[in-house]
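Structure ticket #2291
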Amino acid sequence: MASDPSTSSGNTGTVEVLLSEGLEHTQDEWEAATAAVLRKARKLTDDAADSDAWATLSTTTLDGIAVTPLGTPQAQCRPS
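Resolution: structure written out below.
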């Protein structure tokens, strides 16, 4: 559940999202779930690896920089 940005500790415009204990998920779990949705939508082939979800959902800027859907430091795509 997100907190109200206006009541955060001085960081207006920042929304802090806290997960309840036990709700942490791994990148592999995210990739598997995302790949399943992409396969159902026919955006990812049945024989594609789950990790291909990153490339499918990434957007490339005019400068050739790939922007991943979650924007985490660990998730990096190669420029197209």
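Closing remark: The beta strands are 59-60, 66-67.
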